[in-house]
Inverse folding.
């Protein structure tokens, strides 16, 4: 059987990949995908813990997280589309009117 | 399946019902009568405030122990209802002027308040996350609500990306606490961790990640980069709501997490908060000095005030927790009041929010200028205003807990802040007005919001003892508040 730590390490690796993606990529859509990757890393961690603790709570949490992530995607893509209509770019470096 | 405790859920349900009622009423209302829909959220918030006043002093754990409706939760319910009512009053003329008069605006506002209420009453980390997301998703839309305007798009986008980023940190933290204790219930986690000799690495990592997530939400330095941009670009009425509401809700959530955090991090917890508080107060106040745009200045001021509130958390004694509650009420009145004046004297497109445009307001709009002066005095923490009493309670709690250095730092930061707050007053009263005519949007709703702000600020400053008594009794049942 695969040990718990293996799942946790994969989860941590995915989470860090997401963090690095948010920090380094400039395309709003790719940043958004990185955030989703982070959420899925969390889901993996929850499921792994739930399996090894023999508790169902963690699996239930994952359903909630997936629902919330779907809502976030709907709102997020709408905001990105609204921005693209006005600016014709999704590069976050070019969206910088607010400074000071 | 245990029966639902409808009584304890009533304030939350009142807000939820007014949001759903709005959606239905919107379909049945002709376009020209849309403005009247603002009464529905006002009624919902009013009912929630009345119902939570009735529940205050009792304790219930409805929804299978997922929520805890105690005095502290009822206190926050009341505060959120006040924030909601003030925001609706600000919004009525503002969204008419900016041409975003849709019922969806109020629906989102109502659901944001609902999310805040769930956060404040969360007995389970899952509920905390769901409340936070209900609040955040509604606010992402509201921040970008002026969708023809690029600054609002930018504000919505930045808030969305960083908000979702912060939420995943929080959730990752919840996962580690769950892994360590096999539960997401805050009491169960605390009990499991207290029973052990050493908490081990997982709870510490978990609490650290939750702290990062909540730190983003309250805009604590170093997690504050998004705040000025988001607050400046969002519609002004939404900024007022975000700056007062999100802060109150996030600190309410902090109060729920503190008992677990104390056990997980042991002695390191106050130290971590100490550093956060010191950085937040310092950076917020120093950065505010350079701002010429009043909206952006208030955004940095919001960061600075989050720092003062963190001081109350560092103190960690009942006095500090009660001080936190009192501070949030005082901050709501003074900052929402200041935004009410910004809206009242602003112009469509709000290109006149720089300091120079405010020269001579003292003679041109004497009553609004006087109100603004009162809010600035209060934000700076000068007597006899609410801001002074709030800082007094928080800093004396820090001194009582032995954090004298931090209290001194807080007072020094307040002294710095006097400079940029009073600069507004100086510009309004001492400088000659410019040539361009002053825009006037003297709607009764904005005037009422300003008046309520002034009344609250002066009342809490001159007669703080009643509100203080309520705050002290509200935190008595709170675990980890020490009382």
């Amino acid at each position: 059987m695969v040990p718990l730590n293996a799942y946790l390490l994969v989860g941590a690796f995915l989470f860090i990949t997401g963090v690095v993606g948010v920090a380094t990529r400039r395309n709003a859509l790719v940043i958004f995908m990185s955030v989703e990757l982070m959420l899925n890393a969390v889901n993996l961690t929850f499921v792994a813990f739930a399996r090894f603790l023999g508790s169902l709570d963690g699996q239930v949490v994952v359903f909630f997280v997936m629902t919330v992530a779907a809502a976030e995607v709907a709102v997020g893509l709408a905001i990105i589309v609204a921005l693209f209509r006005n600016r014709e770019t999704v590069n976050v470096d070019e969206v910088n009117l607010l400074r000071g | 399946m245990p029966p639902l405790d409808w009584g304890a859920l009533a304030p939350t349900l009142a807000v939820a019902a007014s949001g759903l009622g709005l959606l239905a009423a919107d379909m049945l209302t002709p376009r020209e009568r849309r403005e009247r829909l603002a009464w529905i959220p006002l009624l919902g918030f009013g009912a929630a405030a009345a119902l939570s006043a009735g529940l205050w002093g009792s304790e219930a754990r409805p929804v299978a122990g997922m929520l805890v409706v105690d005095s502290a939760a009822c206190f926050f319910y009341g505060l959120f209802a006040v924030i909601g009512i003030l925001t609706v009053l600000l919004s009525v003329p503002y969204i008419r002027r900016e041409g975003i008069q849709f019922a969806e605006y109020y629906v989102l506002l109502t659901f944001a308040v609902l999310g805040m209420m769930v956060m404040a009453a969360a007995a389970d980390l899952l509920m905390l996350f769901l409340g936070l997301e209900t609040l955040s998703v509604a606010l992402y839309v509201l921040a970008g609500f002026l969708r023809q305007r690029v600054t609002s798009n930018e504000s919505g986008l930045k808030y969305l990306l960083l908000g979702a980023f912060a939420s995943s940190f929080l959730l990752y933290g919840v996962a580690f606490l769950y892994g360590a204790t096999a539960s997401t219930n805050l009491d169960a986690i605390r009990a499991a961790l207290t029973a052990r000799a050493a908490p081990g690495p997982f709870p510490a990592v978990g609490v650290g990640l939750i702290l990062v997530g909540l730190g983003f939400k309250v805009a604590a330095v170093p997690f504050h980069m998004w705040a000025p941009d988001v607050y400046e670009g969002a519609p002004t009425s939404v900024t007022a709501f975000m700056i007062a509401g999100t802060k109150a809700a996030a600190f309410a959530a902090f109060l729920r997490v503190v008992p677990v955090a104390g056990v997980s991090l042991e002695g390191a917890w106050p130290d971590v908060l100490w550093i956060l508080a010191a950085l937040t107060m310092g950076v917020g106040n120093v950065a505010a000095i350079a701002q010429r745009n009043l909206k952006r200045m208030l955004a940095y001021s919001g960061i600075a005030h989050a720092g003062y509130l963190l001081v109350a958390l560092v103190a960690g004694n009942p006095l500090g927790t009660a001080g936190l509650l009192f501070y949030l009420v005082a901050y709501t009145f003074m900052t929402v009041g200041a935004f009410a004046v910004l809206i009242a004297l602003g112009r469509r497109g709000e290109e006149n929010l720089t300091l120079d445009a405010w020269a001579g307001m003292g003679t041109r709009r004497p009553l609004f200028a006087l109100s603004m002066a009162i809010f600035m005095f209060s934000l700076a923490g000068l007597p006899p205003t609410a801001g002074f009493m709030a800082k007094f309670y928080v800093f004396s709690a820090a001194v009582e807990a032995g954090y004298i250095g931090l209290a001194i730092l807080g007072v020094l930061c307040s002294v710095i802040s006097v400079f940029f707050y009073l600069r507004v007053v100086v510009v309004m009263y001492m400088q000659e007005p410019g040539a361009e005519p002053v825009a006037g949007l003297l709607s009764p709703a904005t005037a009422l919001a300003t008046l309520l702000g002034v009344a609250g600020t002066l009342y809490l400053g001159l007669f703080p003892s009643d509100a203080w008594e309520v705050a002290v009794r509200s935190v008595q049942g709170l675990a980890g508040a020490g009382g």
Q: What stands out?
A: Chain A has one domain: 4-87. Chain A touches chain B at residues 8, 15, 18, 22, 28, 31-32, 35, 38-39, 41-42, 45-46, 49, 53, 55, 57-58, 61, 64-65, 68, 71-72, 75-76, 78-80, 82-83, 86-87, 92, 95-100 (CB under 8 Å). The longest helix of chain A spans residues 57-87. Chain A has three helices and no strands.
